[in-house]
Amino acid sequence: MIFVIFINFFAIIDQLMYAKLMSKYPLIGIGLMMMAVWLLSMTDLGKLLDRKESLKPDSCRSALVMLNKRMPDSWKTSCIKLDMMVEIAVDIPTELLSDPVKSRQLLYRELANSMVFISENTLRDSLERVRFVVVSLHSDVLIVEGVSRGSDVVKLFGIDNDKLIQEHLKATVKVKESAK
Fold this sequence. Notes:
Elements lengths: L1 H23 L1 H20 L1 H8 L4 H12 L4 E6 L2 E7 L4 H4 L2 H21 L3 H6 L2 E7 L3 E8 H5 L7 H11 L1 E6 L1
Parallel strand pairs: 2-3
Antiparallel strand pairs: 1-2, 3-4, 4-5
């Protein structure tokens, strides 16, 4: 009981000391209040939460470390839980825009090449633990999305034969097309 009274006594003295400090130097109090408002606004904007989320270890983020260093500028990557999302902006040449079959072939070829690129430029151990790899190709006329398991994308590493890559992708990648 005496210990609690002793602690409360020092707490009151500390409060008085802070009050005296604030009355002597009012700019410190104003600065502390402004810093508190700024920190609260940062949490409202989600910036501190983004930083907190980026520090959480998981297999998708570790797979993206190497990929983000080597990917082209037209790619955007993100992680949603254990799923890797890759968005690619594709420019179709104007001579292929009139022929929908050739533009579709170009997008599917780009989808296959991007899956191989992902398998070659990520850590294989991390990519195996990624649940799904979603590659979304956006062009002026068509959107093509390919979904595959991370363990299936890893198997593309080291395959040099185009026919083997084609057969592997047919067996493991689910593709969805939608017109813009």
